[in-house]
Design a protein that fits this description.
Length: 241
Amino acid sequence: MRLRTIIVDDEPMARRGLEEDLREIGFVEVTGIAENSLQAIEMVIARQPDLVLLDIEMPRLSGLDFIKSLRHPPMIIIITAYSGYALEGYELDVVDYLMKPVDLNRLLKACCKAKEFFELKQHALRARQFNLPADGYFFVKCNGKHERIVVKELLFVEAADNYVIIHTTTKNFMTHDTLRNMEGLLPASHFMKVHKSFIVAIDKIDHVEGNEIVMGRTKIPVSRNLKEALVERLVSNRPPK
């Protein structure tokens, strides 16, 4: 498996340097190089890359605005000379944020993270195709091991930057993944996204108090726009339509 990758940077030397470094990374294939965000938008639509290495400060359309312009952006690694955009970048779910000049080892680490995200996404897609059952299980990579997660033991999933924390009745697992992938993996008949950072097991909820879910000693926030749907589901005890 090779990640189809586009480089976007308005500096010719930066583009050449990244292209040369990426040749050293066997699982990355450069399929396009853009001088600005407008060119990159056309490339993304035409070539459907898995990964974009993206500069931020570019003429006419910044790298962050480029990400916002895409309905379904690919994985993004930001490579910039400016540290001030890091928070906004991570809020846009970028895989990594690298500061120029980037050495090969740091670039390799970022690309490995992207590869891991890609494989997790493919796993989630396969799981949706086979409809992961409520009494089933799946595996996640955690601390160098592949850990078995039993669905019926799962309490809730919490987003934490580029990770998720899977809380179960016996143990917590922190792994590289996104809440979106987890939402696609878990059976909708038993789980619900109640906040931008939380998915909960409906049958593990003790009660809802104000804008919080209570599970034992744990309190989980509920988004205002999702509370009504949650309460309706709890009262009717039915899966979503």
